[in-house]
Specification:
alpha/beta; 152 residues; four-stranded mixed beta sheet; Leucine-rich repeat, LRR (right-handed beta-alpha superhelix); 7% strand
Length: 152
């Protein structure tokens, strides 16, 4: 399930109030005729934060225009950016957010500038980056050692 319309976004926000029911809602929305049902990266992240008993962080990102026709060339050329500049990324947050990255097939750019990343949190995120990511900003993360830079 990818959130591609305002109605789906509204349904997600109503479901978020009853987070224990998210698995049921996701299951009910699957199309049995489709061989593969995409998982929504934000929904997967929210489920992971719930599992870890942590509050989901307000993600700063520029999403695709959900009112735009998904089959247009304009839509295909629009960049999807996660801008997490200045957000302190703990190891626990990195583990939860990695689930979001794992299912995000549209992500082009991720900005992790000035996040207090540790080697562990960086490696956790790096291991889940989708192949669509073209730019990855790690500047001003003094907690990263040479070990992290060698992984890239």
């Amino acid at each position: 399930m990818l959130i591609t319309s305002i109605a789906q976004k509204d349904r997600f926000m109503r479901a978020f109030k009853h987070i224990d029911r998210i698995n049921d809602i996701e299951e009910a929305e699957k199309d049995p005729d489709e061989m593969y049902n995409d998982l929504d990266p934000i929904l997967e992240y929210v489920k992971e934060t719930h599992k870890k008993k942590m509050a989901p962080h307000k993600l700063a990102f520029k999403a695709r225009n959900i009112t735009q026709d998904m089959n247009t060339e304009e839509y295909e050329n629009e960049e999807v950016v996660y801008n997490l500049k200045g957000v302190t990324i703990t190891n626990e947050f990195a583990e939860a957010f990695a689930v979001n990255l794992k299912y995000n097939v549209y992500l082009d750019i991720i900005v992790l500038q000035d996040n207090n990343l540790s080697d562990y949190s960086f490696e956790t995120l790096l291991n889940h980056l989708p192949p669509t990511v073209r730019k990855f900003d790690l500047s001003r993360n003094p907690g990263l050692t040479i070990k992290s830079y060698l992984l890239m």
